[in-house]
Amino acid sequence: MKMSKPTIDIQKEINPHFKRVWKTKEPYNILKGGRNSFKSSVIALLLVYMMLWYLRKGEKANVVVIRKVANTIRDSVYLKIQWALGKFDIFNQFKCTVAPFKIVHKATGSTFYFYGQDDFRKLKSNDIGHIIAVWFEEAAEFDNVEDFDQSKVTFMRQKHPLADIVRFFWSYNPPRNPYSWINEWADSMVGEDNYLVHSSSYMDDELGFVTDQMLQDINRIKQNDYEYYRYLYLGEPVGLGTNVYNMNLFKKLDELPSDDRIIAIYYSMDTGHSVSATSCGCYGLTAKGKVIRLNSYYYSPAGQVRKKAPSELSKDIHEFITATSTCEHWKGARIQKRTIDSAEAALRNQYFKDYGQHWHPVAKKKKIDMIDLVHDLLAQGRFYYLKKPFSTGLKHADSNDIFIEEHKKYQFDEKTLNSEDPRVIKESDHTCDEFQYLCTANARDFRLKI
User: Fold this and answer.
1) Of 116, 171, 303, 372, which is most buried with the most CB atoms under 10 A?
2) C-alpha dist (Å) from residue 263 to 75, 251, 277, 285
């Protein structure tokens, strides 16, 4: 089957800033940059362009695309490759499957394979063959450079016989910690033979891909939190500082907004028992996208002669949820999710036994990544808390003061700041943890970067 020549004007699809990437002959290409820099779009287009050469010859050629977390494939790289095929007007020549994730050329069998990290480790025993390129998207999510090194030889061994080399691409937003392993690795590769290290940001856009609406969002974050703007949109590893959060971004409400109703309710819980506190936050999502901490349950066993048992905490939490979810001020808003620390089993099982209701264990990320999701919400200027929650009359509830106080005190351990794995000081941090669980578990609902 002879292919018709695709009609695409590359100069209208690729910003001049990426010319070096488009023309690269290097085996190893590291693309780092801020949000909306379009580096992933460039790689997707380039991978399709590379495959076209083989398709025209009737040859089978394969591309491997890898992300750390498999459940992020569908809404990221899988759709991005489909978009790139559409740009070349050849999408209808491919068949797409999701179990497993593959995009297959109907005539030649050429395939884009998509894998999560657990899957690609299995590739050592699976021969795909005819590989021309490998793309590690969101490369900063991986644990270390060994994750890449261990797989490179496997893929190189399966090189297409007509290809001179297998080309590797890494794309990522630089972590804010300059001592993160991927920041140090990319810096060490600058000037090395066979490596292209490329930086980009939204400011490199000359073709108008950054819309006015995008710019409004960018400028809002720039005004709210300039350091976070530098990190998120300029791709600069700005460092951490000792204080974890900018408390000016925790916006106090004396009353609920009259022009923006609450449409959904969320609960998030960090648990203690005999030693540490149990914190459960009630949050509302408004029609305009605000996230408001409406009320808190906070019980500390410190200094108590008799500590509450899981059965007692289960009863307390159920009463708190019943009272807050039926509050007349957000009548009609339904509970969307109850999130709990994934390490907690006793209270989760007790609650299900007592009330037949599941709490969803949070799929934890690295601590710094969960903190970053909170930063994203704060910097967008969309987080608020009620200074005086509507009274439930319950013990251990009806105050958000401890939530604010714990966040004021929340700090990084100075001794770990200049390391790859910065740690927070684990004292009086229970509301901080459950807020992070909330943002991690509901990142899609809250329009946070994932």
Assistant:
1) 171
2) 25, 19, 30, 6
Contacts of 238 (CB under 8 A, 6+ apart): 176, 227, 230, 231
Asked whether the beta carbons of 33 and 235 are under 8 A apart, the reply is yes
Looking up residue 408, the CATH number of its domain turns out to be 3.30.420.280
Tell me phi and psi for residue 190, to 5 degrees: -60, 125
Q: Which of 212, 239, 262 is the last residue of a domain?
A: 212
d(CA 52, CA 59): 10
- Do 272 and 368 belong together in one domain? yes
Element (H, E) at 94: strand 94-98
In this structure, are residues 195 and 28 in contact, taking their beta carbons and an 8 Å threshold? yes
Cβ-contact 148, 142 below 8 angstroms: yes
Per-residue pLDDT of the chain (450 residues; tens, 9 = 90+): 456 566 688 999 999 999 999 999 999 999 999 999 999 999 999 999 999 999 999 999 999 999 887 778 888 899 999 999 999 999 999 999 998 899 999 999 999 999 887 665 565 556 789 999 999 999 998 888 888 887 888 899 999 999 999 999 999 999 988 889 999 999 999 989 999 999 999 999 999 999 999 999 999 999 999 999 999 999 999 888 888 999 989 999 999 999 999 999 999 999 975 568 999 999 999 999 999 999 999 999 876 667 788 999 999 999 999 999 999 999 999 999 999 999 888 999 999 999 999 999 999 988 989 999 999 999 999 999 999 999 999 999 999 999 999 999 999 998 888 788 889 988 889 999 999 999 999 999 999 986
SS3 169: strand
The answer on 261 and 112 residing in a single domain is no
- The pair of structure tokens assigned to 144 is 């270390």
Q: What separation in angstroms does the CA of 213 have from each of 203, 209, 219?
A: 15, 11, 10
The helix/strand/coil state of 279 is strand
